[in-house]
Amino acid sequence: MAVVKLTLEYDGTEFAGWVPQPGRRTVEGELRAALDQVYGGWSRLAVAGRTDAGVHALGQVASFQAEKGPPLERAAAALNSALPEDLAAVSAETAPEDFSARFSARARSYRYRIWRCATASPFERRRSLWWPRPLEEDALAESAALLLGKHDFRAFTPTETEHDVFVRTVSEAEWRRDGEVLEFRITADSFLRHMVRTLVGTMLEAEPAAFGQLLEGRPREVAGSTAPPWGLYLEQVYY
Amino acid sequence: MAVVKLTLEYDGTEFAGWVPQPGRRTVEGELRAALDQVYGGWSRLAVAGRTDAGVHALGQVASFQAEKGPPLERAAAALNSALPEDLAAVSAETAPEDFSARFSARARSYRYRIWRCATASPFERRRSLWWPRPLEEDALAESAALLLGKHDFRAFTPTETEHDVFVRTVSEAEWRRDGEVLEFRITADSFLRHMVRTLVGTMLEAEPAAFGQLLEGRPREVAGSTAPPWGLYLEQVYY
Fold it and tell me: Average of pLDDT values for B10-25?
């Protein structure tokens, strides 16, 4: 009985998110179907980040326990032949018996991609937020710097939430410009539902001083809008 | 009566190519519908490169004569509000009375994108050819160099072709590597149907010496396969 640590990449456009839902196409649903095909038996499926509908992943991590199945060096290829084209197994490794992609994760990184060109790009649709209006990049940098450290993020998750604890520790938060692309990168121990998207939506709308005041446990109504899912990428998970 | 020179970008995935066909969604068909909406009257529509189904464009150029319509500085935005998301007007300029996007073009550049990673990428599907097998990049560079100058390319276009003249002059041809992406770039006065795709398919299969022998008016059967359309981009048109 080996535990397999699987790194996944997916284009979130045509998925109703990670979590299985009856009658909807979800990432976990497709992964389960592929595991059924490739492994004789498997159990204890866990995932680092339960991404929402439309959210992408470059380095999502899932884990499961397998009884029999292909040798590890051929596991990713075997899964890929069973997975749809918009979901790929990038690598498969063995992990310790007590490894869980969810509970063993020390930190996660997300990035949010914004397209700054005056014209919307056919190649950027569904992969970034198109924002042709002016933006104060210095102010965005200031807001990002305020995120570092421990804060109560309850203003940045829906009120009807399943979370009990709203404090998270942010170890990296910055905006980077590369040509017409402006990208926000954030690393934290874990994230609340919609947290990155609401942080981005609020930074785009609010002055740094006002934004900073929202980081200490304010109600949801005072934060800004939730940026759309198609700009968001789960980038990496740290163990 | 002004002539408008329009630069277009499109994701070719969901188009049955440029040329209008009954019952099919084509780039020209969508552009005509947008022109009808935005301009009171228009005529003499011309295009630099009649791309095939699935082929993309970063800098396609079309021209038309307009009677009335929005001021030039708002023309691209007005067209974009009438165009679908996978087709964008990047810019609109005035051109001389006798300008034709097709006949005034001095040269066109294409690029062909190949994804060299062992794993297919969900973000590269439909945008590059996935080629995980070994490739001799030195040999590809040698083949590309042989393309420079004047050659008879009849081996690289379907036998049932509408072309009369098969000689083309290539001014740039090279392979470039950027991370996991290998890209072929070619500039010529004009191109035969399927020419870039068949050049790429043949270079991937044949030794430079054998490839070089195909450049002097050989029959279609002796050249290699036609690489799939989703790796091909019309990059730029020169006037």
Answer: 96
Question: Given an 8 Å threshold on Cβ–Cβ distance, is A11 in contact with B123?
Answer: yes
Which residue out of B123, B130, B233 would a mutagenesis test of the A interface target, given it has the greatest number of A Cβ atoms within 10 Å? B123
Classify the phi-psi angles of A73: left when phi > 0, otherwise alpha if psi is within -120 to 50, otherwise beta. alpha
Q: Which residue of A has its CA nearest to B127?
A: A123
Please report the residues numbered 72 through 91 in chain A whose beta carbons come closer than 8 angstroms to any beta carbon of chain B: 76, 80, 85-91
- ipTM, two decimals: 0.91
Side chain identity, residue B227 = A
CB B47 within 8 A of CB B28: yes
Q: What is the 3-state secondary structure (H, E, C) of A155-224?
A: HHCCCCCCCCCCEEEEEEEEEEEECCEEEEEEEECCCCCCHHHHHHHHHHHCCHHHHHHCCECCCHHHCC
- Smallest Cβ–Cβ distance between A120 and the set B80, B120, B127 belongs to B80
- Do residue B122 and residue A88 have CB atoms under 8 angstroms apart? yes
Residues of A in contact with B122 (CB under 8 A): 9-11, 85-88
Q: How many whole angstroms separate alpha carbon B37 and alpha carbon B80?
A: 11
Give contacts of B83 with chain A, Cβ < 8 Å.
Answer: none
Report CB contact under 8 Å: B85, A11.
no
Nearest to B18 by CA among B6, B3, B30, B34: B30
pLDDT tens for residues B144-193?
Answer: 999 999 999 999 999 876 778 899 999 999 999 999 999 999 999 999 99
Q: How far apart are CA B204 and CA B196, in angstroms?
A: 12
Contact assessment for residue A182 and residue A137, using Cβ atoms and an 8 Å cutoff: yes
pLDDT confidence of residue A186: 98
Please give the Cα distance from B139 to B132 (Å, whole number).
17
Own/partner long-range contacts of A30-33 (Cβ < 8 Å, ≥24 apart) = A30/A83, A30/A84, A30/A87, A31/A62, A31/A83, A31/A87, A33/A82
Residues of B in contact with A119 (CB under 8 A): 9, 76, 80, 88-90
Please state, in angstroms and rounded to a whole number, the distance separating the CA atoms of residues A147 and A140: 11
